[in-house]
Amino acid sequence: MSNPSDPDPWSISEPELFRELRRSLRNDKPAVLVTITDVEGSAYRRPGAKMLVPADEESLGAVTAGCLEGPVVDLAVSIRDTGRPQIETFDLMDDDEWGLGLGCNGVIDLLLEPVDNSVEPMLSVLENREPMTVLTSVESTDPAVSIGDRTVVDANGNPTPSSERESLPEVVVDEIVSVTKKFRTEGKSATVEVSSRNGEVRVFVDSIKPAPQLLLFGNQNDVQPVSRLGRTVGFEVVVASARGAMAADEDFPHAHEVVATRPTDLAKLADEMTYAVLMSHNFLDDRLALEALLESSEIPYIGLMGPRKRFEQIQDELAKDGATFTEDQLERVSTPVGLDLGGGEPVQIALSIVSETLAIHNGRSGGRLRDEEGPIHDRVSVTIQNS
């Protein structure tokens, strides 16, 4: 593993796992992709979580807390030999079977499939930053449909066949397309059951979204821990250095991209899944960057380093220049940036910043889980109305 920010293969983020998946495909190295397709009760991961088992290499990613990695890898080896996708169910509530005292109180279904070109659409999401939904048969009483049959639905709801796999019947896809937008919007994955002409088919609806982008404006030392933690938790990290200082890739080894830019052009680097943190420590640069992001982008979050008084001074300067912003625009600005974790060391400050950004991305407040009611993870409930 060459990833400088995540040396632990088990905790690799999904974007990094997809990069390893692409390497396996390009190098024609046999590998098996493992995906959680259904969960009953409680489990460490939810549907859509993935794990990659390359040939003769350590597994990458996690589908459990680690308790089943050995049995899953053993299964993956057999899948590589047969070349056929397979569904495997693990009842983690049955300690008589496992004898591990797991206490997970859940049942999980795993899809194990040999890596082939049918995964290309998932990988293109990283590069094109366009969401899509992958529909895969995981159980069928229709003799014409096998486990692993696959169709891809693009961001506009248009289904296309998947290379190297049989496509799902048109009648099955037509029933499911109506819910793909809901899944895509919520970034959720789940298994649904629909009727074909000759039986019932259970289909895993896997919503694949672009990785959120963490845009860090600055080139001081405090950018380093933020970029490292941001990459570790799954952000695509872009470091934007003002005036070209320290704008080489080696200056920020944890970033996916390092660019030199003017603060007034910062919005050109952002899309609707970008979360920006302004940390240049230069009053004028941060002011210009903030104005550009508020005026020319729809990004949901702009973290601004420094105390509230600094933000007030920036607002005063902007007002003098005739720039005024609505309450909705200003609500996107977070300053002082970060969650109240109480730490003052550089990495603790970075953790505070990345934690707030991740909470905003996931639509959460960042509070304590013990104070919340109900399940930790949102449950997906979808009913297919058969025609």
Question: What's the quick description here?
Answer:
About 30% of the residues lie in helices and about 25% in strands. The chain is an alpha/beta fold and about 375 residues long. It has three domains: about 10-115, no CATH class; about 125-210, no CATH class; about 215-365, Rossmann fold.
Tell me roughly what share of residues is in helical segments: 25-40%
Write down the oligomeric state. single chain
Please state roughly what percent of the residues sit in beta strands, choosing from under 5%, 5-15%, 15-25%, 25-35%, 35-45% or over 45%. 15-25%
Structural class computed from helices and strand pairing = alpha/beta
Give, in order, the helices and strands.
Answer: HEEEHEHEHEEEHEEEHEEEHEHHEH
Question: Strand sequence of the main sheet, in spatial order?
Answer: 13-12-11-14-15-16
Main sheet makeup: 6 strands, parallel
Overall mean pLDDT: 88
Question: Could you please describe the fold and organization of this structure?
Answer:
With 387 residues, the chain is α/β, with parallel strands linked by helices. The protein has 3 domains: 9-115, no CATH class; 123-208, no CATH class; 213-367, Rossmann fold (3-Layer(aba) Sandwich), CATH 3.40.50. 29% of the residues lie in helices and 24% in strands. It has 10 helices and 16 strands. It has helices at residues 14-26, 69-82, 95-98, 120-128, 170-186, 223-232, 283-296, 308-320, 327-330, 346-361; strands at 31-41, 50-54, 60-61, 86-91, 106-114, 132-140, 150-153, 159-161, 190-196, 199-208, 213-217, 236-242, 257-261, 274-278, 301-304, 333-334. It has a 6-stranded parallel β-sheet, sandwiched between helices. Strands 3-2-1-5-4 form a 5-stranded antiparallel β-sheet, sandwiched between helices. The protein has a 5-stranded antiparallel β-sheet with strand order 8-7-6-10-9, sandwiched between helices. Helix 7 links the parallel strand 14 (274-278) and strand 15 (301-304). Helix 1 packs across helix 4, helix 6 crosses helix 10 and helix 7 (283-296) crosses helix 8. The longest helix is centred in the middle third of the chain and has 17 residues, at 170-186. It is elongated. 41% of the residues are buried. The model is unreliable at 1-6 (pLDDT under 50).
